[in-house]
Amino acid sequence: MARSNNIGNKQLIGQTLLNTPQTYTSTAILEFMRHLPEQREMMLGYPINMETPPAEFFAWRKKLSAVGINQFSFNNVGNPYKHSHVPFNTHQLEKELIERFGAVYSFPANNIWGLLTNSGTDSNMHGIYMGRTLLKGRTGITPKIYFTQEAHYSIQILRDLLNLEWISVTTNPDGSMDIDDLEQKLCANPDHPALVVATIGTTFKGAIDSIDGIQAKLKNRKSYLHLDAALFGGYLPHTKFASEISFEAVNLKTKLKSKRYDSIAVSCHKFFGFPAPAGLFITTQTSFDNFQELFGKVHNPEYLLQTPGTINCSRDSVKPAEFHFFSSKPAFTRQADNAKAMLNNTDYLLKEMKIHYAHLNPTRANNKSNIIYFKKPSDTIVNRYIIATMELTLDNKTEPYAHIVVMPHVRRKILDRFLTDLDHKII
To answer: Quick one: average pLDDT of 290-298?
Structure first.
């Protein structure tokens, strides 16, 4: 690993972001923004892929523009799998990309439903709302929702928004859900159906909740299991860990298939690098049909000539059309290459930190994770590399930690720059 010996002036190699509040004219704003691309490779602390999509993506945008998309008002209102009375939409492109990604997650052919949402939170809201609706419709009792403190903060917001009682499940040391505690909490609430949100890649530690372990505890119980796989759901299918997130499990003895979860949410702007917030929400057509029957009781289909089954009424037509590009075979090949490089670079970072900075207690929750967390370095480092920090209690001691999320734009030279800057020990 490259090291700089010139540390007498205690200057970091990375470039300082402009944090001084200023008053801008519109021209000054654009001038400020012009320098942002130079700083994007320094973003190490958040799960955003700062790579520019390939030239073919922008060529695809031009083709979309040529037929009017993003030139005048299109609207994906309604169910993308149903005929729309309003023809100015991109439902067919949306449906096709959902079916392609459904296949990636091993949903059964001809039993896939979903949509492209505004964000990962929006996708989670569709999953939790569908779960609540189905469980209450089947039992007449509002379910209780089970998730951990390590789950994304948006789950707490959605729990409050949907007026669900939260049963907080404790975690294992790595941050994953303690399924024995889940079992105890389920037993303490026998009269309520269980709506469980499992996190595949927790926000700070990168822990993975056990889907099969959770399902084992939900056996013979009215339940719905939704996966929040915002970041990890993008790259795991392209690795040797693909089975971790597969919808179906195959019994090796009987060869029978069984579902492992009910729905999944994946962010488009994280691993994929889509240049705007968006999310995938995928479930089965069977679950959606059951949900839609109940949804129809609160929705009058006369105006749209269909019962949409979506929470949002008007929906963006541009994002599904553009994200369709990321569902092609060449795109999946690029994603596989990015996933491999990303995990290799995570291996490298952990190894180097353990060798040179063992006192920072660098930790990786599992070998599927692209996140390394460690004791918080100086504020200069934190600000320079836009690193997220959080108070963690480990071994009965609470202190601030930081983490690096190794995204596709985080290459070895950036990691070496970060490691060298750590070497300066600037306070």
So the answer is: 89
